Amino acid sequence: MNTMDGNLRELYQEVIFDHNRQPRNFHDMPEADRHADGHNPLCGDQLTVYLRVKDDMIEDVSFVGHGCAISTASASLMTEAVKGKTVAEVEALFKDFHALLTDIPPERDFGKLAVLTGVREFPARVKCATLAWHTLHNALIGEHTPAQTE
Amino acid sequence: MNTVADPLRASAATALPAADDFPILARPVHGRRLAYLDNGATTQKPNAVIEAEARFYRESNANIHRGVHWLSQHATELYDAARVTVQRFIGAARADEIVFTRGTTEAINLVANTWGRKTLKAGDEILITTLEHHSNIVPWQMLCEQTGAVLKVAPVNDAGEVEQDGFDALLGERTRLVAITHVSNALGTVNPVARMVERAHAVGAVVLVDGAQAVAHQAVDVQALGCDFYVFSGHKLYGPTGIGALYGRARLLAEMPPWHGGGDMIRTVSFERSTYAEAPQRFEAGTPNIAGAVGLAAAIDYVQGLGMDTIVAHEHALLEHATAALTAIPGLRMVGTAADKIGILSFVIEHIHPHDLGTILDSEGVAIRAGHHCAMPLMTRFGIPGTARASLAVYNNETDIAALVAAIEKAQTLFGTRPKR
């Protein structure tokens, strides 16, 4: 198996396929108190993230939209990762997750999000993995122009 | 050119030895043989073009239309000769009907900002088609905002062909401009341009044809087509990036005001008033891409050396072969099945997003484009976010198609969605 094949298997792990086939928290949320749209104009990926925030804590989160396996799985994994966390914890996690994909990864337990580490070897796909996070960030700060990525 | 399917032509698909002329094709990608099938985005460059541009800088470089010195005159001659090469290549009546631009996009914007702003009034109509690339949509939308003109869009059928009845029905006495692509970059559909020009002229409209995807793949004769403007890029024609051409009827160019102001486009300048040069210099302000024009001429010489009939036969045979090979893959659906098309294969695969497919194909050395192909309204028409697109050129062969098919099957295996044959 050459390096590229190894990289490809790192990128497309079974967890990614699972979350792509059956995304978690994949529905709209009429009772959401915040939401934001995300759009990758270069590839056409589109999603909306819904949030219910109570006492500075993510009480519920969901998303709808369409995109590639990486973007769908990343959004799904994100919803699982942020539920029950405080807004400050989520923003810090986004910062660390972004560094995990593009920079020197910080020392921390990323839980299931670690399956997206393989994206590091595919710079063109970083935007797929971070779109949901940029959108979540916009929802948290009340930004209404659609989120884009790096 | 007769393009009826002929199994004997299949041999032509492997006969053209053009691959040896393109040094980049010899470099491996991810340790694999490169199957470059992204020619709709840009073509690779033959040695003849690379050498012509390098030779210009080594032996002939100087600014044009300025110096009395020998090198400047020499560079000017090369630049002017390149204009004549372009003129002959697309069958224009006169060399001064060719304006060098950065490419197709700049050429369209030039027409919008000069002819368009001078001519269009509120309520006038511009007719385009659903097939258009963003570069033949957005400049007209901007022009509509500036002038109050209205954009109309002719529909396409499920095969990706412009519905000619629908096109005719949108032509009227308010139609001032018809802007249509010669060949769809996303689907490969060849528009019946001569017919559409005739109908447009019958209502007095001026016609611009976007030839970006056409000039490398079929013979173009602007006088036979009858169009008023024809635009194309050098880099999709085996030439350098940053050079392209606008053909405009001499009568229209003569009436058009300048767009960019600066050196080389003037006759006289004073602080009270400047007067402008004749076309094409009026539209070529500043030092142009001289080496690019020389490289473009070399690309045209290269294409003509291969022979356009040979190119058409080769690419058509390969298109037939590739279409058969791809449609045999379970779960693959072709998007764009026009009766008249050139070597562009757009497709979607069940349960695999085009971007995931693009990444996996790349890992096998197969370069394709994935996404909306700068034709978002067309993707919306087909109810899909995007497609995977393999686009052919003179150096492609059946080995490239075999690599494409094998890589698609690998993606289906990886995704666990490979249906039983």
Automatic annotation (TrEMBL), chain A:
Domain spans labelled NIF system FeS cluster assembly NifU N-terminal: 12-128
A Pfam family the protein falls into: NifU_N
Recorded superkingdom: Bacteria
One of the protein's GO biological processes: iron-sulfur cluster assembly
Coiled-coil stretches noted in the UniProt entry, renumbered to this chain: none
Protein name: SUF system NifU family Fe-S cluster assembly protein
InterPro entries: NIF_FeS_clus_asmbl_NifU_N (IPR002871)
GO MF assignments: iron ion binding; iron-sulfur cluster binding
SUPFAM superfamilies, sorted: SufE/NifU
Family classification: Belongs to the NifU family.
TrEMBL record, chain B:
Function per UniProt: Catalyzes the removal of elemental sulfur and selenium atoms from L-cysteine, L-cystine, L-selenocysteine, and L-selenocystine to produce L-alanine.
Coiled-coil regions, chain positions: none
Matches recorded under Gene3D superfamilies: Aspartate Aminotransferase, domain 1 (3.90.1150.10), Type I PLP-dependent aspartate aminotransferase-like (Major domain) (3.40.640.10)
Enzyme class of the recorded protein, top EC level: transferase
Aminotransferase class V domain residues: 36-404
Protein name: Cysteine desulfurase
PANTHER family according to UniProt: CYSTEINE DESULFURASE (PTHR43586), CYSTEINE DESULFURASE 1, CHLOROPLASTIC (PTHR43586:SF8)
Keywords recorded for this protein, A-Z: Pyridoxal phosphate, Transferase
Family: Belongs to the class-V pyridoxal-phosphate-dependent aminotransferase family. Csd subfamily.
Co-factor(s): pyridoxal 5'-phosphate
Domain of life from the UniProt record: Bacteria
EC number: 2.8.1.7
GO biological process, one term: cysteine metabolic process
Any one GO MF annotation of this record: pyridoxal phosphate binding
Catalytic activity of the protein: (sulfur carrier)-H + L-cysteine = (sulfur carrier)-SH + L-alanine
